[in-house]
Task: structure prediction
Amino acid sequence: MCPWSSSRAPSPARRLPLFLCLCLAAALPAAASDSARLLEVSLNGVPTGLIAEFTERGDGTLAMAASELAEIGIALDKRGLAGDGLVDLKRLPGVTYRYDTVHQSIAITAAVSGLVHHTLNARPDDVPVVATSGRGAVLNYALFGSLGDAAQPNVAANLDGRVFFEGGLVSQSLVARAGSDNPGIVRLDTTFSRSDPVTLLTWKAGDFISGGLSWTRPYRLGGVQVARNFSLRPDLVTMPVPGFEGSSAVPSTVEIYANGAQIYSSPVAAGPFSIAALPVVSGAGTARIVVTDAFGRKTATELPFFASSVLLRKGLYDFSAEAGLPRRSFGILSADYTGMPAASASLRYGLTDTITLEAHGEAAGGIVNAGGGVVMPVARLGIFDLAAAASAGSHTGLALHGGIDLAIGRMALRLHATRTFGDYADVASVTAATGSGGDFRPAREIDQASLSLTLFDAGAVALTFTRLVAASTSSVVGLSYSRPLFGDGTVYVNGFASVEGERNLGIFVGFSRPLPGGIDFAATASVADRASAAVDLSKTANSAPGSFGWRLEASSDAGGRNAAVRAAGTYRGKAARLGASFDATTAGVRGTAEADGSLVFAGGEVYAANRIDDAFAIVDAGAPGVEVYSENRPVGRTDRRGKLLVAGLHAYQRNGLAIAPDDLPADSEATLTKTSVVPADRAGVNVDFGVRPMGASAVVILQDVSGAFLPPGATGTLASGGEFAVGYDGQAFLTGLSAANTITVDLGNGATCTAHFAFHAAGLQTSIEGVKCL
Result:
């Protein structure tokens, strides 16, 4: 404040101090007002690359909006809020800063706990892909014939056909036999199906197998079914997977290793962070998480985990519901359906990431069966499940099931038990028993136990025990052991013994080893009803067309009464797989021949190919002899029509396809050389790479008046239309040429030149040299 006051007018000597006081008084309000500042921000010594807006208070401190604070990476603490809604940096706990007025920058230091928390998803779910389907049909066939002096000739065909279109797929399968003990044609399945990747539902009408749970028994029926189908979204992670939390004072890189291999890597901003849905495999193990900050410092953390596909993550559910007429004698009779309707439904729901609930209900033939169960992890070591079901009506009873599967280090333990009480029955038993008089009810007691142990170089050993109480009682103990021997070789011993019921004992000993040239050697010996031994040499044909495979086998029992020699060979061609075998035994000789492949009807044309069980594509490259790639692997060359059938595509997944542009004719061009397709279930798609003739074209070598090449980058136009660019050595590729042509080239800086030249089509790529542009 100014220290001057008087009732008299100031003297000239005092006018200067008065003037100074007035100036100071006028300046004080301006210094006390707030002003905006745009400052370059660094956080904990690392530049953020951001310029944020700050408000400089009258006392020289800085404040900023809460949204700007979060953007630079600092979490909002309500203790820093001022009355005007801004956040005062000096009031934030653990935050200090240095304001550089010369460079208009601010260096902020903040405790890690005060930074924004970041969440990373190591397995982000993609949006559902849009699947496409062309129109056509596929007929898979497997033909078999045999002839020998010990049996009558036999011919059989297994046919599996399907028709696909935009609305779904209709499939039909059957078996035809001639000359055998059971000749004739037997229909197998006739089914219409439609799938929707958005709702993850698959609808079926016709023949199918009912849904179910691990403690229920499925059955065949003809009718309708709707079911959740997670395979429509291969990217979707259905099981709960572990997460990880950490922190870093500066921007860092997070890497995750499982079984020694890196499975995830991502940058993370400064502050606390968490990683959800680690991409780990099913089972128990340890993940290693390495955090490398901006200064190169590394921090490693070991994280034990357990993941199982039998668990559903929280909020996810899986179900199946069906109704129709149960089917019997499948593969023997074409249409043996019972007269009693049946219906069933199964449900799995992830209540939490550690509790999956199960429920099942079914009804048919005067009985109703319903039950429920729960599946839970056991201390990151395994899975425990418990279920109970009851039947009422014409068959009343109760069934209980419990099991535990553990993985402890190198040891795996499995214990399962099932008990039924009273006259317990399910739909599978009452429908199978119709008209047969047999007892098809579930076994009264089932006990299963297994223990396996990996001994590293000493091999692996497994002990099993199974007990079944139904019409009779049987208990079997099994023991197996295997270990590496002689480098790549493996020796194994398997044995079993009945300890209850009918007495049986068997021991099997074998040795196998790969040999040079892709040949496998195996020798076995066994003692069961009698002693026997066998030696086997084989080479397996791979999936590439033109590959061969063969097998030589000799076997005999101890007395030589059942000696046999067998020779077999296979050849995989582009259109089918062919095979033949010859057997010579003490009972006589026998020869067989077989062929399996497919016929594809699409786009008004017919293709012969190997068996196609999944999706495929008809690639149109516009010219013969063009090499086609699937997922960067060469899969063949186009035929005389310029087309190639590419099998082995995966439904509801992106499949990359490409062609080799160097194989295209010189007078053609392609709209694209690579693309990706997402086919629907077992459907075919048409892929046209847009290869079209370019018309008359040539490479023209352009020179100036002195004979020097025109500069690269110059552009020109053809008098008849069309533009081009000049490359190195004066080369320009021109299309749409006629017998006489005129071009104008822009040389830059307003300079142009004109050239005239003649063109004569020769059927090949033409090069016209020495064209002067004047």
Summary: Confidence is low (pLDDT under 50) at residues 1-31. Residues 497 and 503 are 7 Å apart (CA to CA). The chain has three helices and 54 strands. The helical segments are 12-32, 66-71, 427-432.
